[in-house]
Task: inverse folding
């Protein structure tokens, strides 16, 4: 029980920081930043649901399985991250590209769920999700660079958020491609790798987002003080 609670606290700490930073900077966010924050709120909801589902299953002596929660979450997560990217870009051609990438993921997601069901976590959906996110968000960072919008003095919150997200997706693609195999052949090692790779990179991802959201408020308040000072 202590291990279970420690894991829960460890996983939710970075999310609480995101929640606090989002509340602090909420009125200063643009659409891109706001949707990133909403995506984090949606993840908090699904994260809590996964524990509730497991708790109910244990109470009724049912074999714990919350993997379907994460399968459903991937569709919400990708939808919101692509929506954020859609708001970020101004060019219609790039917006259309974001839509095409999302539609491709959506059909792949529906195909995998239709063929293999929702009960077992689908590492191939995760890999396709991660690849789609990487394509779009690497281009966001490239757009920042070519338009000279990267500002070391303000530490560019968008770049910090993108780096955390890309680190998470890059680290997890190889692992989730092998997840089903590892769960069958070496379940203990699979659980350890999940803690080392997925939990660590997820914490870094949301700590980066928390820092980015906090900087939005800090930078705006600092600018306003200078204008009125």
Result:
């Amino acid at each position: 029980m202590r291990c279970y609670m420690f894991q829960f606290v460890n996983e939710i700490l970075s999310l609480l920081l995101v929640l606090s930073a989002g509340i602090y900077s909420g009125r200063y966010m643009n659409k891109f930043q706001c949707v990133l924050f909403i995506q984090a709120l949606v993840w908090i909801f699904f994260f809590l649901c996964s524990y509730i589902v497991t708790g109910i299953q244990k109470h009724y002596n049912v074999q714990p399985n919350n993997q379907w929660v994460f399968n459903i979450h991937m569709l919400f997560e990708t939808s919101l991250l692509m929506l954020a990217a859609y708001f970020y870009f101004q060019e219609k051609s790039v917006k259309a590209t974001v839509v095409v990438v999302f539609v491709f993921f959506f059909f792949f997601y529906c195909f995998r769920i239709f063929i293999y069901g929702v009960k077992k976590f689908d590492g191939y959906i995760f890999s396709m999700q991660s690849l789609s996110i990487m394509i779009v968000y690497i281009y966001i960072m490239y757009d920042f660079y070519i338009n000279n919008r990267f500002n070391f003095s303000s530490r560019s919150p968008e770049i910090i958020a993108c780096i955390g997200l890309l680190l998470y997706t890059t680290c997890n693609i190889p692992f989730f491609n092998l997840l089903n195999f590892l769960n069958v052949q070496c379940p203990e090692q699979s659980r350890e790798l999940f803690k080392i790779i997925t939990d660590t990179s997820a914490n870094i991802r949301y700590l980066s987002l928390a820092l980015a959201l906090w900087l939005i408020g800090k930078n705006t308040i600092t600018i306003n003080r200078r204008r009125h000072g």
